[in-house]
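Before the break, one more example. Copy the sequence into your notebook; we will annotate it together after we see the structure.
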Amino acid sequence: MIKLKNVQTEVDAGYLYKILAENEADPDVAKIFHQMSDIEHSHAIAFMESCKLDISLLPAPSGRAKVLKTIGKLFGYDYVLGVLLDTEKSLASSVITARRKNKLPDSLTDTAHVSILTNILNSNKKMSGSNLARFEKRHRSVGGNALRAAVLGGNDGLVSNFSLVMGIAGATGGQNTVLLTGMAGLLAGALSMALGEWISVKSSLELHENQMQLEMDELIANPEGEEQELALIYQSKGIPEVQANKMAKDIISNKDMAHSVLVKEELGINTEDLQGSALEAAFTSFLLFAVGAIIPVIPFFFLDGAQAILISTILSGIGLFLIGASITLFTGKSVWYSGFRQLVFGLAAAAITFGIGRLIGVSVN
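Here is what the structure looks like once it is written out:
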């Protein structure tokens, strides 16, 4: 069963890498994606053969993979790359478990997919320094995936406000006080999230801007030293010395490009990530939290008492399940398992606060 699941995983990965290749404007990067697609396809065939299955019965891409393709069309294919690379650790873990269970030797070619990508890049003599930097920037931006932020932001708002609403409903019996409390919880939580995001982004921008200015000063004062330093960085990644020196020389010849690459390589800062607005980040955080937080409050605009509590629970339960199911885009786990897990935890939290609210309400009365 584990091997068959891995077959589907490899099929999906090959399919998604092919989608990335077909929609990549840079021919060198597209070639890398095509190579990765071929690698994943060969893994799928190897798993089929190890299961003694007819390779002509290789499964088609799953619904999850097709949803990711649609997301790529709507929001850009970097989202697909982000999700794809972000699942590599879980893929590696499942492959290692399957191999050890069947007493097979570990193989880096089956597990270290990100390393394979890096090796392909390093062995590609036609890969320019700017393309390598761009690809690595996209690779490292996985953790900042906006789609993930949307799911988790909505989850924070829903779980926290659902628990708050149920606690007050338990204490008051679901009267109109719940509506006021729910809206207050929505605004307080969303404003807190927005302010926290604004401070985080603003302070990060200010710190990075100061570091980038220091790097520019070093570049102006000692360009030869910076060129040598950059060449050594590329050599440490496994790039041959001659190619590394050429890449560094080409990059240093353009001061703006050199500055961008140096702050990325030396400081770990991607200049494209600094183009966002702190206010925009704050507003987005506010909105994502509010979308989730409004769900349990909606029935109390029109109803009160037990009926409002029941409908609020049903709506929140549906929201919890959908959020849990959405998380599988990043984890690759079962939709039903993730959805029901999120539902159970969310309902448990709400039930606890409802019970506490009921006890407090009875005590007050």
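The longest helix spans residues 177-221. The chain has 16 helices and no strands. Try to locate both features in your own notes.
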